[in-house]
Amino acid sequence: MFGDAVAYLLDGSNWNGPDGIVAQLGQQLLLTVTALLIAMLVGLPFALWLGHVGRGGFLAINISNVGRAVPTFAVLVLLSTGPEWGTDTLGPYGRAGLATLIALVLFALPPIITNAYVGVREVDRDIVEASRGMGMAERQVFTEVELPLALPVVATGVRLALVQVWATATIAALVAGPGLGTIIVAGFYNGNYGKGLAGAIVVAIFALVLEGLAALAQRALEPGRHASFRLTPKPLKAEASLVP
After folding, report:
1. Cβ atoms of 236 and 41 closer than 8 Å
2. Could you tell me which of 163, 159, 171, 178 has the C-alpha nearest to residue 216?
């Protein structure tokens, strides 16, 4: 079976065309990136704000972690059969595109919300209090102190979500959606196990590529590699600086 998989991957005709590996890889990458961006737009501001104020985080994290317990495939099936979402084609996202995106976003939210909240809360409280004591407004404390120091942990959550969503996006094929899952499903359904294994190999290899790129991006966000923040006291008013 492994030999058949290698032969399938070495056949150039399997890479080209609308149903080829390249096209399916691009469709899955589009699903992954779109779902990840939506999850970041929804989850990051909420979790970062909760981390800054220090309230409601326990409840938010536990609610978001419900997504870990609910199978993504079950969510996808329920959404794809509903009249509001259905199985209609959504532009380049293919059949049941909206249902697939919603399921993937729900799957991506837990690591993003958890890491963003924990990253801000784990910033040294002495540094935070010192910045406030030097006259920084709350907005400055967050943007110039907490957020730069929390970025590595926040990036870890995004990195985890990226790889998980990429691997999970293959389930779109189970509701006739696009992506590399179509190669896997078609291969095993038709008894061509080499084809199915070849699709799985491509998914695994590209997951490693995404993991490597995300790791490089995360290293670039480490506070020690850049000037992360500077505590600058507010200038004293002229009248306050006069000493009798």
Report:
1. no
2. 159
Please report which helix (H) or strand (E) contains residue 209, including its range. helix 193-220
The pLDDT, as a whole number, for residue 93 is: 87
Strand extents, DSSP E, the chain: none
**Residue 172 to residues 19, 27, 120: CA-CA distances in angstroms?**
15, 11, 34
Angle CA(24)–CA(166)–CA(105) in degrees, nearest 5?
110
Give the pLDDT of residue 15: 93
pLDDT of res. 135: 81
Say how far apart CA 225 and CA 149 lie, in whole Å. Answer: 12
**Domains of the chain by range and CATH?**
2-221 (1.10.3720.10)
pLDDT at 67: 66
The reported pLDDT for the residue numbered 60 is 73
Q: Measured between alpha carbons, how far is 58 from 65 in angstroms, rounded to an integer?
A: 11
CA distance linking residue 232 with residue 234, whole number of Å: 6
pTM of the model: 0.84
Residue 210 is predicted with a pLDDT of 94
Alpha carbons 142 and 17: distance in angstroms, whole number = 49
Give the residue among 40, 174, 162 at the shortest CA–CA distance from 94.
174
The set of residues, in sequence order, having a beta carbon less than 8 Å from that of 149 and lying 6+ positions away, is 123, 124, 127, 223, 228, 229
Positions in the chain short of pLDDT 70: 67, 82-86, 223-244
